[in-house]
């Protein structure tokens, strides 16, 4: 599971995302910056990911080749991509690193309000089910304890039998 809160600090430090107060929703929220949009567009192009959020449409200016190479070098510097040898293609390849993949998934998460709400619902359901399971375990233990004979009764029976044999 991706730790979006941990990645949030990194995204803010990279200036990919900013915190603001949403007056309409009456709550704190996050929005992607121009740097973040460009990085996400470059990320999607580099790895051939589908743009499900419509970020390319939201940013009308095409990213120049020099800017793409600058963003690519930043990805390498921050270790968002890994340099490997692709035996199938017989060339170098730059797939996403685990941290890079999780970071950009977090960026998409903070851009998409629907995704945030769905994840919050899933977390709430997990918490409710977890509490129910803990309750069931507790009830089962209590029932087992109440139906089992008391330890003191077991010991008394053994002692009486032993005394009877000695006499």
Automatic annotation (TrEMBL):
Residues 142-167 are annotated as: Disordered. It comes from the Archaea. Residues 155-167 have a biased composition (Basic residues). This is Uncharacterized protein. It comes from Candidatus Nitrosomarinus catalinensis. The lineage of its organism: Archaea, Nitrososphaerota, Nitrososphaeria, Nitrosopumilales, Nitrosopumilaceae.
